[in-house]
Amino acid sequence: MTLQLYRIDDRLLHGQVVVGWGQPLEIKFIVLVDDTVAASEWEQELYRMGVPPEMDVYFHSAEDAVTALAGYRADRRPGILLTGDIATMARLVDRAAVTHVNIGGIHSRPDRVQRMRYVFLSPDEEQQLRALEARGVTITAQDVPGARPIPLDDMLGGVEP
Amino acid sequence: MSSEGAGQAGEARSRPRAIVAGHGEFAPGLVSAVQQITGRGDQLIPISVHHLGIEDIEELLRRSMIDSGVRVIFTDLQAGSCTMASRRILRGMQDAVLVAGANLPTLLDFVFAEDRSAPEAARHAAERGKAAISVHGAPA
């Protein structure tokens, strides 16, 4: 089954991921790629306690994830890869050939402009997404499986059904 | 309610004793239900976290605890952002209690337990909330 979803979500592992996507896709493992979490046993334990016992969570720094990704892609179980920001996902696109990226949640910050209900972007982040798309990556915003995937152009235009 | 005396409000307001936080309208919805059933909804501070990132959620909850003095948080989901943020806050606040997976029976028990300290009442309410789920109808 391999990785079903490559998701950018600044809340990382939370209800929408574990329950909203996890249950309908029958997700059995989550790969959380975040340098801060990867460096903290306490943070990792915090996230482990948030998932049901039948779901595994693996933690990697962005650098480690590049080499580990082949193993997760070969895994027969369905999984999700999560990053907390665009820059981390961009590193995986460059070095691990990610082709589809889901924007699950990038929330409000003083330097960001609201593009959708759950997507706020700074000008720099908007450029990063444009650059990813120019490299052939399909980028859509979709917070939960039942929502319609919104293409990047519509997302940046603030079009939301 | 009519006034009962000079300088007194007709309906005494309780001091907040806990924060309720979660997805969507979970918190205002539950607090509204508690108020409707018991008239004691003012013991609970509802917090919604639409549009907020995890760091802002943590800051909002921490600020609410400091400003109100409460040391109890009820959240909706073990894996939820509010639960994650609350657990980070509790790391530096040894006298506080988090109840994750709270439901209406939990909160009803809590608001009536004014003779207990808020953390003690929260632990008691959590047990009541667990026991309050029942299934009826067609056999499995």
In short:
Chain A is an alpha/beta fold and 161 residues long. Helix content of chain A is 37%, strand content 25%. The longest helix of chain A is centred in the middle third of the chain and has 12 residues, at 62-73.
What does this structure look like?
The complex is a heterodimer of chains A (161) and B (140). Chain A is of the alpha/beta class and 161 residues long. Chain A has a single domain, classed as 3-Layer(aba) Sandwich (Fructose Permease), CATH 3.40.35.10. In chain A, 37% of the residues lie in helices and 25% in strands. Chain A contains 7 helices and 9 strands; from the N terminus they run βαβααβαβαβββαββα. Chain A starts with a strand and ends in a 5-residue tail after the last helix. By secondary structure, chain B is α/β, with parallel strands linked by helices. Chain B has a single domain (18-126), classed as Rossmann fold (3-Layer(aba) Sandwich), CATH 3.40.50.510. Chain B is built from 5 helices and 4 strands, in the order βαβαβαβαα. Chain B has helices spanning 26-38, 54-68, 81-90, 104-112, 118-131, and strands at residues 18-22, 44-48, 72-75, 97-100. In chain B, strand 3 (72-75), helix 3 (81-90) and strand 4 form a beta-alpha-beta unit. The A-B interface holds A 10-15, 17-19, 42, 46-47, 49-51, 106-109, 114, 117-118, 120 and B 23, 51-54, 56, 76-81, 83-84, 87-88, 91.
Question: Would you spell out the secondary-structure blueprint of this structure?
Answer:
The complex is a heterodimer of chains A (161) and B (140).
Chain A: E1 3-9, H1 15-21, E2 29-33, H2 35-38, H3 41-48, E3 56-60, H4 62-73, E4 79-83, H5 86-96, E5 100-105, E6 113-116, E7 119-121, H6 123-134, E8 138-141, E9 150-151, H7 152-156
Parallel strand pairs in A: 1-4, 1-5, 2-3, 2-4, 5-8
Antiparallel strand pairs in A: 6-7, 8-9
Chain B: E1 18-22, H1 26-38, E2 44-48, H2 54-68, E3 72-75, H3 81-90, E4 97-100, H4 104-112, H5 118-131
Parallel strand pairs in B: 1-2, 1-3, 3-4
